[in-house]
Amino acid sequence: MKLVYPALFSLLFTSAPAFRQQLYRVQREGVNLQESHQSPREKEQLYLFENRSELLGFDSYMPKHVNPSQLLGAGKLLTETRVIVGVPDGSGELDGDKRERMFLFGPAIGIQDFEAGRIEALKLLSNLDARMGEFEAETEPEQDSDFVEVLRLRSLDVFTAQQLIERIICDVQVEAVSESRSLILRGFPQRVADARGLIERTDRVAPQFTLTCMVVGPAEGEGDPTLPADLVQGLTALTGVPQFRRLGSLLARGSVSGTSKLSVTGQFPNLGQIGDRSASITLQASPNAYDEGTQTLSLKSCVMGVKRPVPTSLDSQRTMPQSIAAGWSNELLETDLSLVASEYTVVGALGSDQVFLVLRFTAN
Question: β-strand 345-350 against 328-340: which pairing, if any?
């Protein structure tokens, strides 16, 4: 017994890319697998055997992963299809009995060959069956294209989230429900899972914080016992004034994001009052970052304004600057700030009367 094409089987089963391309052509390019024994790519001659047809035997293989027609068609493209029992005649032509080597046998594949040939064919069909099963599992599209999931948002705007998914994830239908701050996702399960993962990475609750804006000035006699000792010591080292008192404070609550704005205004009569007009402080900022590790809050474009009343008269309106002549003096301080949680930060002095603006934030 002689194998004519022993290298072909080894090549196709040791070269995964070539094998997959061959399977793709078999399954996707219109090859009629049930009639593939007529394909010109098949090889007919396997053995020459001297009139020993009585040695031919029969075996069968039951496919486990693909249907027998597919497996038979692919198998015939990878190995010889007929057994020839006979000897060459005087001209070199074969004079023998040609018999089908592999054929459909009910739900199985029948194999008619000599013993070694049957063993080789069974091994080929078993390996090919497993490989084709893996190929089908990898290339077969998901069947449930109507998978539906409702995703409730925490902080992200529903229409922003909808546009984000539509731009990045393909094959997912997104419906925004603004009343319940939810998205309805429809599509293949894997695509819906991709969309959910994208939103989970984006839709994070912005850190919340409370910002205290405090005005501190010199105290006559005893100082304010509610002021922290380290703040008083720092101001004393800076000015030489031994005692300080709180002249007023205001609270502002906000969140940290790329678009959040903070704006708050409070009255501070201790900074100046004339009649029904009293001093006020306005704080505006963009809380754009918060580092949880260092508990540092970044305030971008922080603007602090102090507005104080001043006496007015007809003469002063002719000789003083317009802002003062109108009855008010204004001071502005604009800067970027980084505040550490629970620490007091002296931002600056107001005028020349040793009055300081102090900020402190706590994370909620």
Answer: unpaired
